[in-house]
Design a protein that fits this description.
The protein is α/β, with parallel strands linked by helices. It has one domain: TIM Barrel, CATH 3.20.20. Helix content is about 40%, strand content about 20%. It is built from eleven helices and ten strands. The strands form two sheets. An eight-stranded parallel beta barrel has the order 1-2-5-6-7-8-9-10, surrounded by five helices. A two-stranded antiparallel sheet has the order 3-4. β1, α2 and β2 form a beta-alpha-beta unit. α9 packs antiparallel against α10. The two termini are about 20 Å apart. The structure holds flavin-adenine dinucleotide (FAD). The site of flavin-adenine dinucleotide has 23 residues, from β5, α5, α6 and β8.
Length: about 325
């Protein structure tokens, strides 16, 4: 079922969902299940499955030189979606990226999704590769998520890239896109970034999932600004509990967000990471309760492969 239908069927009740990261190549899928199983009692109607970009690795050769190879260390997004659908009977949401994929490869992925009965995809540009100064589109790929959404909308109208190729039944799935309450780091201003979001919506996006944030005020202001631009689709807040002291450095660096002073102080004064986890869980519970009271359609958690803190939050909130 489409996410938008799940939201409509909930009739104003806030739903619980979460995102998982595909395991590293060679790792046992059981570990993934071990972190999903404890969360199933909260009835997530959908689970997002990330897609990771390819990386370059340098392999030493006998002559002392190196051979540079492109590898994907966390493949398997569609396979894991199929596994989750079979095991848990939920709607998996594969993330589809511009970076690292040509338009043809995207089309093949969507054909797989159609065969598997996958009803939703999250359309993202992806980040730059590690060695790149800024994002460069792959050969034959899209530059912006907006263009990817256009391609997905074409598939829903029954159009493949090759105009001579016929589709018996148009594809039928909903499309999610990313939104940034604290602005995407490359955008010159929040207002320009919101205009980019509006273009994704105009291209056919059905719902938005936000980047994590720790100050609900930023989410509420973002939603108000989006609504005043004419964006009427659901805007699902993304929540991540702080779990270790290092997050104070990592989260702002990687996700380009602010951590409120009060939370920084609480984390800094926690005596160990067990105490930090407690602070993170309590903060996320308060955030979730306020968001729920404001009537958000879904609370979407970035689990990052760890269920225990998400479970504690869900127990307190749902
Ligand atoms: P876009 O919407 O294309 O925006 C990228 C930047 O370009 C923004 O600054 C925007 O303002 C600007 N822009 C857009 N259109 C134009 C235009 N026409 N001209 C000029 N500027 C423009 N990454 C992964 O690699 N894998 C994942 O699975 C993944 N999942 C994510 C899930 C969520 C909910 C979120 C919020 C992010 C996720 N990301 C993931 C990260 C995401 O790929 C990065 O944040 C990426 O840098 C931007 O992706 P986007 O889809 O928002 O890009």
């Amino acid at each position: 079922m489409k996410i938008t239908d799940h939201i409509a069927n909930a009739e104003g009740k806030t739903l619980f969902s979460f995102e998982i990261v595909t395991p590293e190549k060679g790792k046992d899928i059981q570990k993934l299940y071990d972190n999903i199983d404890p969360l199933m009692e909260f009835n997530p109607p959908f689970i997002d499955v990330t897609t990771s970009r390819e990386e370059f690795i340098d392999i030493p050769k006998e002559n002392g030189l190196f051979e540079r190879r492109k590898v994907r260390n966390r493949p398997g997004t569609i396979g894991i979606c199929a596994a989750l659908k079979g095991k848990y009977n939920i709607d998996p949401v594969p993330h589809v990226l511009c970076g690292g994929f040509s338009k043809e490869e995207t089309e093949y992925m969507m054909v797989d999704c159609q065969y598997l009965g996958i009803d939703n995809v999250m359309a993202l540009r992806g980040d730059k590769m590690k060695h790149e100064p800024y994002f460069t589109p792959s050969v034959g790929g899209h530059a912006y998520a907006e263009n990817l959404v256009e391609q997905l909308s074409d598939l829903r109208k029954g159009h493949f890239l090759d105009p001579n190729m016929e589709m018996e039944f148009p594809m039928n799935f909903s499309v999610g896109v990313a939104g940034y309450p604290e602005k995407h780091y490359e955008a010159p201003s929040l207002s320009r970034d919101l205009q980019a979001l509006k273009r994704k919506v105009d291209a056919g996006a059905d719902y938005v999932v936000t980047q994590m944030f720790f100050d609900n005020k930023k989410y509420f202001e973002f939603v108000d600004a989006a609504r005043s631009l004419g964006i009427t689709i659901p805007i699902i807040p993304g929540i991540k509990p702080v779990a270790v002291k290092r997050h104070l450095d990592i989260l702002p660096q990687v996700f380009h967000l602010d951590i409120p002073e009060e939370l920084v102080t609480e984390i800094e004064s926690a005596k160990d990471n067990k105490a930090v986890k407690q602070v993170g869980v309590e903060w996320a519970i308060n955030q979730s309760k306020e968001l729920m009271a404001a009537g958000v359609p879904v609370l979407h958690f970035y689990s990052m492969g760890k269920a225990d803190n998400i479970k504690r939050i869900a127990e307190a909130v749902f």
